[in-house]
Amino acid sequence: MSAFVKESALIWHNGRLIPWKDATVHILSTAVQFGSSVFEGIRCYKTKNGSAIFRLPEHLKRLHQSCRIYRIDLAYSVADLVDACRVTVRENGMEACYIRPMVLRGYGDMGMASTVNPIETYVTAWEWGNYLGQDGEQIGLDVCVSSWNRPAPNTSPGLAKAAGHYNNAQLIKLDALAKGFAEAIALSPDGLVSEGSGQNVFAVIDGALVTSPINGTNLSGITRDTVIKLAADLGIAVIERPIPRELLYVADELFYTGTATEIVSIRSVDHIKVGDGKIGPVTRSLHSAFQDIITGTVPDRHTWLTSI
After folding, report:
1. Could you tell me which of 139, 140, 148, 260 has the fewest CB atoms within 10 Å of its CB?
2. Which listed residue (161, 179, 229, 273) is catalytic?
């Protein structure tokens, strides 16, 4: 699926709404020069009870944590940014969309740290469908193990969702596409499974979910946490433990999780079929439970939806 943005009318910037075309950053800002920017990806869904944003406070808490890790002084509280996200969606007249809050170091001092530069806070929103396309939704993805590893712990902070980290993710994605795959799974420096270019990874082994621990090489995904909680609701055991590469080839099922990705099955890794090559029953049950929540088909028992 094309990732080109369908422009919305308005973007929230430092407390007020401005036209989309006016949301610009100087070429010599610290964000552009050194990638000094943190962000979140959040989805708003059209539910049976009206439009609602999924796990909004959790995303914005993580944004605050990313700012703290990178010593960025964010002027807005989680509650302030909840309001900003709701206003941005509502004033753009959207029923369903992707929301990207961003906090960045702006233009001023040219040094690496640039602590005196202004901190710019934005909330953007646009209409965006399946990030990995309809094939991923309907039949699963053919992926590879990337030749690029994720960074080692204590090289870049894996818990922070920072723009600069995505240079590595971009290499992982480009590597997969160049080889004819839809996506990739990256290993940590010790050769164990870390994550995809922008997704966490789950395996199903003998009916249980197995996923890598948060170990400094991967992001603590909010959709990952959602799946773990939904698995508990469904009585599916979850095991967080190191995953060797070869386990990808013998797992009964594999799937990605992420805000843009949601829950998408993996049907092969390095041309080796996963299970019978079809979307498995555990993946289907978790996908169905997730869809029931985001469409409002079932009660929001975890209070994950924030009405706009």
Report:
1. 139
2. 161
